[in-house]
Amino acid sequence: MQFRAASPWALIRLPALSASQLGWAAMGLTLLIWAGFFLSLRAGAKAALAPTDLALLRFLPAALLLAPLAWARRRRLLQVPPRLLLAILFGAGLPYFLLAGWAMRHAPVADGATLIPGTLPLSAALLAAFAGGRTALARWPALLAIAVGVLVLLVLGSGASGAAWVYGLFLLCSLLWSNYTLALRRAGLQPLEAVALLALLSSLLLLPLLVWQPPTALLALPTDTLLLQFLVQGLGVGLVSTFSFSLAVARLGAQRCAAAGALTPVLAGLLAWALLGEAPGLATLVGMGLIVGGVLWSQRRV
Q1: Contact in structure between 60 and 202 (CB atoms under 8 Å)
Q2: What is the pTM of this model?
Q3: C-alpha dist (Å) from residue 12 to 8, 176, 183, 212, 261
Q4: CA atoms of 61 and 195, how far apart (whole Å)
Q5: What is d(CA 160, CA 149) in angstroms, rounded to the nearest whole number?
Q6: Which single residue of 33, 36, 62, 287 has CA 20 to 30 Å from 266?
Q7: 237: confidence class by pLDDT, cuts 50, 70, 90
Q8: Phi/psi of residue 83, each to 5°?
């Protein structure tokens, strides 16, 4: 009788995850990255980093990494109509990033995280209604709750600081992102193709801006801070969240993921409170509650 030496790895048994558990793990990672995106923008502003500095970390690593993929699928990418291409670029590329980055220099993390992802159902419904969709406003009670939450933040939250224009930029970012999702669906691009397209086009647009405003503040950052920004913006937002969210949708369904995404403002607000000392005010809590509640209500089955 022959005996085979057992592999040391055989002694380590990892628990097998079900499809649902894997989906929730992927969605949890996605929420952390989404919340980290707003924290990174705010922390960059406090470190006197220009939005273009953070944009360099956000788009250039993905562009370099995915350039071979973009070249291999260049015919497919070149077939995207110019109108959809502009909607994709402005909705999730450099223009969107610079607007969000500039606005986050003047507002707390909780407000930005509430007004951009939290109002996506409302902005998507408005865009669909503008395009002639009859059923776009069918869930009007949920949309009304989101709208009231926005008004609370605009009147009570921004009124004290005189930053109403900043909150207007957040709402514009929400509209741009909603238009991006619609354009991406019509273009028929796979997630990795969309990331490559956004990274390359945004990097090309960014080069003249960097010549005008060199990233001197970025290069002067301590190594650990620079590494953290790179991990959040370059790897997390730029690459990992795309795959984790796609995996979550495949395992849980789009409806559950959309409802779970409503937790982004809450998570971002809690992390900003713990890490940046930004305690949310009453207007932020009331507005956040109305908007998050409206998003969850909008995902109910009818």
Answers
A1: no
A2: 0.82
A3: 7, 48, 46, 55, 34
A4: 11
A5: 16
A6: 62
A7: confident
A8: -65, -45
